[in-house]
């Protein structure tokens, strides 16, 4: 992929440009090329409207261009080139790459791009940027952060970003061992929320805890062994909910380092909640308190 | 599959018995044979402990039998025959069937059975049984029901059952156009909760609404256009949360027929919640109120 998007028409599904876009299903190709791709009118609209600075180029079929004229308008306003391509070209762009690289980390190969695809600049996973984002949060007012530590499933990561957005979170931070939110499956699950609020990747877990404490934001973990129960606990207005790995939960060190730990009540016979359910209950309890206090 | 489980050892992954178990990944084979299958020690333990009446036979590797001795004990207590098989036999049982039938409705083919598999009797999808289950709920005390109407994704159905269990729901009802909770992907996502509380399938939507009203249980829908907001609405102690299709939500007729409709507050810029997130917020708000009132 050249620095300046190539303006020549794409006519072969086996062309280098098509294969380069297809390869972006893989995390290593995204990192190497500093690019990600997204598919479908809703995600592309969110990118162009909310993060035009990240958008590099758009590929649309004639049909989709007619159905979604606002996409060309948004692209024009952001000076993002739009390439009209045949449907078979788009479908080849979301097919598994033939370069022998890693398998795509989502079901991108099975999903129709619905006539629209965009390529964007991948925000670098950078621990210092994540720390800066925490420091730059407004002081002396309610703040809600979601920290994902070792959350490995791309679908979970995308859905968690969507739920954090819905609950009014100000920031989502992923530690470096979490799934990439810019993978096809995570992007799809986030339904545009990836571009609605700052999502920082590559953070270091213990550095993040220190930065939160410096910013007077209380890191809150969930644990089945915690004394305090979520619905009756004293929840700070400046809070960072920290969720851990799907199978193992939070590691002991992080759990010990978090200044607050709460237990989500389980009334039935389920032994646990999955990470997304736990996050939903915590984030919306914070939202409920915020609304009740306002 | 014979009525009485065959006791002869299984030595070929291509045998009829293996292929019959493999075919249970498909909904039509489950219905035709009135059987379902589950995999992994946790699901099998829940089946044997909580619904031994449904269990028909167990297949385990020597390794898994040694690692999980409680499974043979539970099976013995329930008079469920245990067959020791080689790992390659078990793996063939979760492979896509070669009979040209429908594709499995889950990712069963990709997941290891972890050395344990059980076959059980499929509870028949029966609208009248679903109505009876509602009528049989205790009267004059708090009741929480989850109704899934046209929820089509097996993973969502399983996760919703798990979350309903965790929130203390008394019953889950699925209308006939919802995904089958006994499919491999739904069973896995339910993590045993499928056997913790009554899960009734095949219900008719409007009959169900009438039965709920007769039982003095308020059917509550969620809608972005509702006047009442979840966190401040008057929520009855006898409540049935009704969740709709992943893409379309609840159909207009069901929404109009539900006596209560609430809006889940969205604080950020997400346009909507997915069905599982919405159910989680509603079910746990009911649990919170119940605990606060107790």
UniProtKB/TrEMBL annotation, chains A, B:
Organism name: Brachybacterium sacelli
Record key words, sorted: Methyltransferase, Transferase
Molecular functions (GO terms): methyltransferase activity
GO terms for biological process, alphabetical: methylation
Protein family according to the UniProt entry: Belongs to the class IV-like SAM-binding methyltransferase superfamily. RNA methyltransferase TrmH family.
Keyword Ribosomal protein set for record: no
Protein name (Swiss-Prot/TrEMBL): TrmH family RNA methyltransferase
InterPro entries: Alpha/beta_knot_MTases, Ribosomal_eL30-like_sf, rRNA_Methyltransferase, SpoU_MeTrfase, SpoU_subst-bd, tRNA_m1G_MTases_N
Residues in RNA 2-O ribose methyltransferase substrate binding domain copies: 37-117
